[in-house]
# Entry
Amino acid sequence: MTYLFSVDIEGISGVVSAKQGSMDSKEYDRARELMTKEADAAAEGAFEAGEEKVYMTDGHGKMRNIIIEDLDERVELFSGRPKILSQMEGLTEDDIEAVGYVGYHSSAHSRGTLSHTYYGSVVDDLKIGGRSVSEFAMNSYLAAKYDVPVFFLAGDTEIIREAKELYPDIPHVVTKTPTGRYSAKCRHPKVVRKEIKETVKKAIKKKKSKVIHPENSTFHVRFKDEGKLDNCELLPSIERTGPKEFIVDTGDIETNYKVFRACTMLATTVSQS
Ligand SMILES: [Zn+2]
# Structure
């Protein structure tokens, strides 16, 4: 059986500023090392539980953050972009038993460290089936389409709180407690890694995982800037419902997920010059 880990950077212990996740920053190398080690701890937990295969998806920015040579050599990594399923690339491979998340952060409607939903400078809120979602929830709803359950989450206290609204018993590890948008009380990375390894191992052995579907698959999206929506109207699959709002309602969660992401890309093509 294969376990898939989706890995982001903003929820990693020690990461508190967007600069740290940006390739042109002097702090980036350190942040990607922290990210790689937390992700590797999750993979080790799966191998110690007796699993033979672990897939990992790099889910932040340009998606070339994880340092592959520093991972356990049994891991296979989906690196780079574009990837058709983005943070969930690998989901449709054969034999995926469950998905876990490392380095996840809270949504745009939360007051967490570096909170945002998918594309921070563009998306103000995303609702699926009537409820505001985090990237964790959005990706888990997509996994549900393929009957792939969620079994683990590591991130800050705010994303854990949000996730528990959907999965009250989700095996989890807290990496840090937000004290502001660009600050947090961080747990020591070595302690966090040990806990991640143990929690993943236990969750796999106990087979604690769950599939949750949204009430319905409709995406209600609000952008931060109304101009950014103007090119999205080129897509027949969206309905603009306000200056900053639109709906994606194709009847299929995966198509909605892709159209929503296409809209976030089209948003960046609008400029006044
Ligand atoms: Zn993210």
User: Anything to note?
Assistant: The two ends are 52 Å apart (CA to CA). The pocket of zinc ion is lined by residues 8, 10, 105, 135 (CB under 6 Å).
